[in-house]
Amino acid sequence: MTHKIVEDLRPLAMPIDDCHLDPANARTGHDVDQIAGSLHAYGQRKPIVINRLAGGRIEAGNGTWQAAKALGWTEIAAVVVEDDPMTAVGFAVADNRTAELSRWDGETLKALLDGLDPDLELPTGFKEGELDALLAELGAGLGGDGGGGGDGNGDAKPQIDRAAELQGKWGTAVGQLWQIGGHRLLIGDCTVGRRGECSPP
Hints:
Elements: E1 13-15, H1 32-42, E2 48-51, E3 57-60, H2 62-70, E4 75-81, H3 85-98, H4 106-114, H5 130-138, H6 163-170, E5 177-180, E6 183-186, E7 197-199
Parallel strand pairs: 2-4
Antiparallel strand pairs: 1-4, 2-3, 5-6, 6-7
Helix pairs in contact: 1-2, 4-5
């Protein structure tokens, strides 16, 4: 018996060869080495999903299965469902898509990772250089550019393509007048020649 499944998942353990990859999986390019590093360090903490009616075809967790095989595991924890073909496809796509619908909070991520003991060398899924690039993109980089990847004078890089998202997050709208302490901030739209103005500056 070879595996590193956490104790509470062990009742779901099954022979790893009773599962097989979905040949029609639309999500490709799994970083098996990164997933294997996580499995080796932390063990399997969530089950994969397989479809009994499709002979053990994996609906969710293809990358996890590949990594476990690469580690030489003989068992893997799996939730077994009995999905018709339409349900199987719908769930497989939804499982991959919904994982993309959240985003990183750069400052929180940086604080969490800064708190890790580097001597433990715990895998986080980030390769060398990837984390710095992500934090710079999110405006939480380690450099002296004001955190926003701007010109070094404290000005954040414009994020026009995220305007609607950020408007929703902060509850702002063009024409609003905000009172911030002794300052007033008028919200404008820089894409049409009008920007936010504050008084006093």
